[in-house]
Each structure stands twice: as C-alpha cells, then as structure tokens.
C-alpha cells in the first residue's frame, strides 16, 4: 500500500490535535494533518493518521 492513501473525510471531521485539542487541516501535498496552533504536522501512513506528538514534524508558522 502507498504512503499517500486517501484520508477518509469523515475521519478528518472528528480528529483534533492531541496536543491542543484544536482543529486539523489536511495538507494533500505533504500528506499530513497540520495543527497550526501546536506547530505540528502529523503524518498519514497508508491512510491512517499517526497522531503521536513524538512522530509529528515541527513546522514554522
């Protein structure tokens, strides 16, 4: 399976940032869920978001 499997829109509608409990924005270009408030990008692997802060990439914002 590919690392860029599509994310179910229903899943996106219920997920929140595990750090801030705030909204997430899907970035199709990087295949990540972005928490602007936390400054973190959570990867999506095989269509499954990896919502572990230790696995997230820090982003500049």
UniProtKB/TrEMBL annotation:
InterPro entries the record matches: Trm112-like
Pfam family, one: Trm112p
One GO cellular component term: cytosol
Annotated Gene3D superfamilies: 2.20.25.10
Family membership noted in the UniProt record: Belongs to the UPF0434 family.
HAMAP family cross-referenced by the UniProt entry: UPF0434
Protein's name in the database: UPF0434 protein B9K05_11205
Organism: Acetobacter syzygii
Source species taxonomy: Bacteria, Pseudomonadati, Pseudomonadota, Alphaproteobacteria, Acetobacterales
């Amino acid at each position: 399976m590919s690392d860029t499997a599509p994310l179910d829109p229903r899943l996106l509608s219920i997920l929140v940032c595990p750090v801030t409990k705030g909204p997430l924005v899907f970035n199709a270009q990087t295949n990540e869920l972005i928490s602007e408030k936390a400054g973190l990008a959570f990867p999506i692997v095989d269509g499954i978001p990896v919502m572990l802060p230790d696995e997230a990439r820090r982003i500049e914002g």
